[in-house]
Amino acid sequence: xxxxxxxxxxxxxxxxxxxxxxxxxxxxxxxxxxxxxxxxxxxxxxxxxxxxxxxxxxxxxxxxxxxxxxxxxxxxxxxxxxxxxxxxxxxxxxxxxxxxxxxxxxxxxxxxxxxxxxxxxxxxxxxxxxxxxxxxxxxxxxxxxxxxxxxxxxxxxxxxxxxxxxxxxxxxxxxxxxxxxxxxxxxxxxxxxxxxxxxxxxxxxxxxxxxxxxxxxxxxxxxxxxxxxxxxxxxxxxxxxxxxxxxxxxxxxxxxxxxxxxxxxxxxxxxxxxxxxxxxxxxxxxxxxxxxxxxxxxxxxxxxxxxxxxxxxxxxxxxxxxxxxxxxxxxxxxxxxxxxxxxxxxxxxxxxxxxxxxxxxxxxxxxxxxxxxxxxxxxxxxxxxx
Length: 386
What we know:
386 residues, 4-stranded antiparallel beta sheet, 11 helices, 17% strand, ATPase phospholipid transporting 8B2
């Protein structure tokens, strides 16, 4: 999976030469391996905790726990805070781990799909993750397109083929793609094995309905457009077979460019809870300040007379410092203005209740993935595939 996450410098243009892996490898193009998961075994704990502590309530209760560990200001046991906090963090972590497990499982299924790749003049079965830019792939009817391909030839007259783009834009009607005339006659494997044309085109982008490039072959150049492209995620329909040249692979494909990075999702209730906790904490601070000022005044005006009977702690040397410590003590004592029991109930019901309504973690993951692959890509007219 290291290949999936390899960072490369931004491209100004894409160059891909057919049947020449050695030439294409010098550009360090992305492999056809995809990764939609967020965590691995090493990064799960730190990354997940970082994400969870972006919730204001979690940060508040952690801050409260730290205060309760300081004996000079704490009047309550830290146990009352750490148990519900750990419970909420654990439940959320288990749900996130379950969802990410299914993402890993889905990634493995997709990366291990089989495709027919022309290597050394012979069609060989290769996993999708091993397909490289510049490879020539054979697709058969009802197969998914493994990468963004330049259509070279097909079983239909004039190099036509029919595709379904439901995974890209949600449309189930057939669309027509056509190979350029100069390559439409390359239906024979022996001819394809000798094909050494080079494509120079735009760098990877997320524009599903646009493509511009040029094919250089036999000292001639031929313009290319979106009508000559088969995008990853499409399905070949009503066409016995076709051959295509891989232009973009893996994370560089237009489908993956549109999917974006898997993010930590917040519901509208989460955002409301964050706002409420901030307002309540502000109210709590105001009360603590008023009470701390009152304590300092009392210690200065009255408490000084009772030092023999009510002496200050060794660390306290003034009424002001006594008021400062009292401020934090009042924050701890009055922490129930943010009801931790209500927050725990909210967290448990939201995290697992939503998951159960979606048919368990797998159902939740599937529904989210379907929305991201269809709804988001097809939500704007600019994403329609013509």
